[in-house]
Design brief:
three-stranded mixed β-sheet; mainly alpha; 68% helix; Alpha-Beta Plaits; 2 domains; single chain; Alpha-lytic protease prodomain-like
Length: 291
């Protein structure tokens, strides 16, 4: 299964899980008078929206390079991750505001029905299983977008755990446990949204490749016969891939053809690294004495 097929398949599973959970949590939360469960249902609804964003980005990123996007459309995935982060921050703000309003008027906090506890427990189990499945798929196909969406599901599982604790506290005679749980959920969602959004922003600003990838590139360049040295190695991320620029040093006595062939060998060697999308080389002639 290729990365795009895996992304589509896993995301569709997430859509159905979140659709069921969002409807069940909001409906039971309203009937059971649990603000925390309703907040968790809204969180699940935001996941449903994010799943559609992932599906759209996955489809768009598969488009072939064109005149306006000569390096392809891979950054649509990064843009989708940024949108996911912003969406989570917006959801957190709404949940947090509602929780603070309720805490400022503790008399209005009702005692929740026991059905809310069972609904929260079911949501916790479903979200944790969904997280483990999506993370495994994301790592297998090496997709930042899928991994980000998986951790989004993990934040949901953590929030469902907090909701469950808050509901149990409410049932045991501590009414404020429910809105406090809702407020904690808001903080957790905001933290995860900020991390995902910042990571995406970093990639959109041409963040360098990971250290292990840079080391692999350096080793690939140095291993090519005829390369006397190299400098000005620069990398930048494009979605889940890497673009590379490097200046290679060759013997100044070589012909232009020989220097060009060495440069092509460097490009081919670097492109054997899985994440490398394209390589730009510049040939610098150097004397043997300088080397």
């Amino acid at each position: 299964m290729d990365r795009h097929t895996a992304a589509k398949h896993s995301t569709l599973i997430s859509v159905w899980v979140n659709l069921f959970l969002s409807i069940a949590q909001v409906a039971i939360g309203l009937l059971a008078r649990s603000q925390a469960l309703v907040a968790d249902g809204i969180h699940s609804l935001s996941d449903l929206v994010s799943d559609f964003v992932v599906i759209a980005a996955n489809r768009q990123s598969r488009l072939a390079p064109d005149a306006n996007h000569p390096y392809g459309h891979y950054r649509f995935e990064t843009a989708a991750s940024l949108l996911l982060g912003l969406l989570m921050l917006g959801v957190a703000a709404g949940i947090g505001w509602t929780a603070v309003t309720r805490l400022l008027d503790p008399v209005s906090i009702p005692v929740v029905h026991a059905s809310a506890m069972w609904a929260a427990a079911l949501a916790l189990l479903a979200k944790e299983l969904l997280f483990r499945y999506m993370l495994r798929v994301g790592k297998r196909v090496d997709s930042k977008m899928l991994i980000a969406n998986a951790w989004h599901a993990r934040s949901d599982a953590a929030s469902s755990l907090v909701v469950l604790v808050g509901i149990v506290a409410n049932l045991l005679g501590f009414p404020m446990g429910d809105p406090i749980a809702s407020l904690i959920v808001a903080a957790m969602v905001a933290r995860m949204g900020g991390q995902i959004g910042w990571s995406a922003m970093s990639d959109l600003m041409d963040h360098a490749a990971a250290d292990e990838e840079i080391s692999a590139i350096e080793h690939a360049v140095a291993s090519v016969s005829g390369v006397r040295g190299f400098h000005d190695l620069r990398t930048r991320t494009v979605g889940d891939f890497v673009l590379v620029d490097v200046h290679i040093e060759v013997d100044e006595s070589l012909t232009v053809r020989d220097g060009h062939q060495i440069a092509e060998s460097v490009q081919r060697r670097i492109k054997t690294i899985p994440k490398v999308l394209d390589v730009m080389t510049h040939v610098d002639p150097v004397s043997v004495g300088r080397h």
